[in-house]
Amino acid sequence: MENQGKSFLTRIRKTLPVVERFALVVFTLGLVLTDLIEYSNILVSISLTVLAIVFFLTAYIPIEMPQDEEHKTGFNELFTFTIGPKIIWIACSISTVGLQFYFNGLEGPDIMLIVGSITLVPLNFLLGIQFLRRIKYAENLTPIFFRSIPIMVFDIYVLIQLGKISL
User: Fold this and answer.
1) Which member of 11, 41, 49, 93 lies 3.0 to 4.6 Å from 55 by CB, making a disulfide possible if both were Cys?
2) Among 92, 79, 165, which Cα is nearest to 130's?
């Protein structure tokens, strides 16, 4: 009865990090076993699908920020703590699906990886500036950076491997 007034995403807020960690362990296990077991690519595929779903759902979880009566919130705070993180989570989801396509040898990973990296690079830069400015509650951006920056780097690496980016 205590969950009755809460949304689905609010109720699963605590389970998403656990599911994400489990998917990362399965993904790592799948990559390690790639040369040893014939069907380990199934582990990679399933874990990337779960990660994409977790990233997508995380974008829609309501952000809980303490309300400050004396500190007025404007567009800067709205972009830094609501719009930017939501777009980053969705871009991480798109990139993860692109990586899944890449690992499975399907058509079209380059388009998803380009969309993901074109979104992740400027938003990580803009939110990184806000983080370095030490704005209030900037520590709430740390989990976003821990996920989006490695995905962004991996996107760019795969795009270089596919010949879509030349250095």
Assistant:
1) 93
2) 79
Tell me, rounded to whole angstroms, the distance of Cα 145 from its chain centroid: 9
How far apart, in whole angstroms, are the C-alpha atoms of residue 120 and residue 124? 6
pLDDT at 87 (0 to 100): 94
**Minimal CA–CA distance to 95: which of 46, 146, 156?**
156
Pick from 12-16, 45-49, 85-89, 139-143: least confident: 139-143
Q: What single DSSP character describes residue 141?
A: G
Q: What gap in Å lies between CA 116 and CA 118, rounded to an integer?
A: 6
Q: Considering only CA atoms, which of 131, 144, 142, 47 is closest in space to residue 88?
A: 144
CA angle 161, 51, 78 (to 5 degrees): 100
How far is residue 136's CA from residue 81's CA, in Å, rounded to a whole number? Answer: 10
